[in-house]
Amino acid sequence: MSIDNITYRLGGEVDLAAAPRLVEDLQGFASRTTGTVVVDCAELSFLDSSGVDALLRVDRLLRSERRRLCLVHLQDTPRRVVEILGLRETLGVDESG
């Protein structure tokens, strides 16, 4: 049985200390689906460049498999980081939810 799309809930702060674990978790999570990996960021309060790099690493892996990463419910502070870096489209930020 394969699952097309699943949602990973990301919360708290993603910084240098947390980024390696995020990559590991998302890669394991992605292995359970064949489709888009949706990351629910409703509880994400902080994202630094290490966190962005972690998301980009997972996105590259998914793209190599013709899949996507999609961030939803991105809060103001992490959203600004993604927008300043010009990565809203690359990281699949979904404005609708």
Structure notes:
By secondary structure, the protein is of the alpha/beta class. It has a single domain (6-73), classed as Transcription Regulator spoIIAA (2-Layer Sandwich), CATH 3.30.750.24. Helices cover 38% and strands 27% of the residues. It is built from three helices and four strands; from the N terminus they run E-H-E-H-E-H-E. It has helices spanning 19-30, 49-64, 76-84, and strands spanning 6-14, 37-47, 69-72, 93-94. The longest helix has 16 residues, at 49-64. The N and C termini lie far apart (27 Å). The relative contact order is 0.20. The model has no long low-confidence stretch (mean pLDDT 92).
Strand fraction equals 25-35%
> What share of residues is helical?
25-40%
CATH architecture, by name, is 2-Layer Sandwich
The largest sheet has its strands arranged as 1-2-3-4
Biggest beta-sheet profile: 4 strands, parallel
Note the gap between the termini. Answer: 27 Å
Helix/strand-derived category reads alpha/beta
Rg estimate, integer Å: 12 Å
The CATH C-level name is: Alpha Beta
SS element count, helices: 3
For the record, the count of structural domains works out to: 1
Unreliable stretches (pLDDT < 50, length at least 5) are none
- The general outline is globular
Mean pLDDT: 92
According to DSSP, the number of beta strands is 4
CATH superfamily: STAS domain
CATH fold name: Transcription Regulator spoIIAA
SSE succession: EHEHEHE
